[in-house]
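Recall the central idea of this unit: under ordinary conditions, the amino acid sequence of a chain determines the structure it adopts. In this exercise we apply that idea directly, starting from the sequence alone.
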Amino acid sequence: MATASRHDHFPSRADPGRADPRRERIRRAAARLNARWRGEDGRPGGLHAAMAAVAHEPPTVAIAALAPWLADSDWLARRLGEAAALLAADPFASPPLRPIGGGESAGGLLVAEHGAVRLTLQFEGFERGARSPAIARFVPGGAAIRFLAAGGASIRRHRVAVSAAEEEGAFTAAAASRCRSEAARPLVAGEELILDTARESFTLADATGDILFLELAVQPPSPLPVRAYDLASGRLVHLSSARRDASFRQMGLGLLRAFGRRDAVPLFAAEIESGDFAARWAAMRELVALDPIAARPHLVRMAASDPHPEVRRAASATLALLEPPPLQRRNGETCELVREGPP
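Accordingly, the structure predicted from this sequence is:
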């Protein structure tokens, strides 16, 4: 007699042609909850309608208009309760709250989103012996944050100067201001921060419990890149595109490079012509790693005519690395130290 598996409670997929009543109940319950939430959010005065009304406003205006959704979170507590009830009825249900993040001790839920406006519930789990953050990130836009649970943590705020010209596309790593950090102080549950995230950031450390906060972020596409600074030195250590679509394409190009897909060179070439200097150089770097020979003509053009001075310099330096080495004479003959391609 066959012994029942401890996995037998999982909804079966053995016969895809036959509807599984339990799976259908799970889907219907989640769909009903999703439809109700979408209906509530889309009505006048609803969250999605409020986001849509300010989607094209400057971050400061959008954040001020949506601040009541952070100040009173009873509506969110009700939704979390409904999602928990759905899971209690069936642990394989999928509540209409999309997970985000997913690091070892950090993650969260996407509560609502419209264009560049996004509301998330973020969680940082307590981790004994965790190191204090070494990097602060600055993202063009603005944010409002309300801490629901402080977890005994300390908060340290960081600032960096950004000129109007840099914000409009004249940013260079060489001229970047240093990051200045304040002294750490205790984080207080219930406190709120309003940040110009292009110039202000924060890190959390020394927690003795879990940290939970709501973040309303308004981060429209910007020619100013996302910047990461080393907190010990205050120096800029990394740049990336502030455009979400460019970030997704960069991840895709990274995968294509890792899989050795030389047939995808036209995709790399298209991104090299994009308007975002950080995205252009990221695509070029991946193409050089994938196929240096195919990358060479693009590097030549980039070194000669890219509108960003640091991209031109980086392309020139990379091009020099790809040039054949100097000729060496031996016994009166000339030979190449390295030969690329077929003889």
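Residues 245-322 form one domain.
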